[in-house]
Amino acid sequence: MSSKERPTLGGTRIKTRKRNIAAPLDPAAFADAVVQIYLDNAGDLELVAKSIESADLNFSRYGDTFFEVVFTGGRTQPGTTKPDEGERHPYSIIDCEPTREIILPSVIYTQKILRRKPFLIKNLENVMRRFLQSLELFEENERKKLAIFTALAFSQKLSGLPPETVFQPLLKDNLVAKGIVLSFITDFFKEYLVDNSLDDLISILKRGKMEENLMDFFPSAKRSAEGFSEHFS
């Protein structure tokens, strides 16, 4: 026997360790498929919701991407609000008119999706948190649309959306200093109070741990009892 040959036991099968092979991530293909559903149904959200329900797509893996398509019409670049490559549709929340009548159907549509796929609430939180922390990257009218959507989401008691998801990300010093947060929260208050009482608003602020910290939404130059009263008069 050659010195290079290793002895083996007759009939013994040499086992090799199996490796877990992960399927490649492809959020671009997922986003394109969701966009196509919007285009095929010409933005009719009832038809879109039915198609989403029956679609053979991996929502558990690409939930964040799904809500990027809902809000902006397509995929956004990782960690930003900038559009990424790929297909887009013109029926998103950002692309619509900044009125409750136009945005409310998107809230109801989102509620339907969450009832059928409740695990997506965490993805909605992720995307809303990222967008609210980056409000300065949106145009003024786009920020208003996000404020209206958020107010209507609470007014419609959107499944499981916690208030801290909305209020805490807003407390970024640069956003507060520029007055962006105050403008957003004012639009939110105005819209929410159309259908709800002041007590309801206070309840949401308490749940969001903001009822005693409303001054934190104001730029430092306006952070006084007088400035607060003058703004909300």
From TrEMBL:
Domain (5MP1/2-like HEAT): residue spans on this chain: 14-232
Example of a GO cellular component annotation carried by this entry: membrane
Signal sequence region: none
InterPro entries cross-referenced by the UniProt entry: eIF5-mimic_regulator (IPR051245), HEAT_5MP1_2 (IPR057397)
Domain of life: Eukaryota
PANTHER family cross-referenced by the UniProt entry: BASIC LEUCINE ZIPPER AND W2 DOMAIN-CONTAINING PROTEIN, PROTEIN KRASAVIETZ
Name of this protein: BASIC LEUCINE ZIPPER AND W2 DOMAIN-CONTAINING PROTEIN
Lineage: Eukaryota, Viridiplantae, Streptophyta, Embryophyta, Tracheophyta
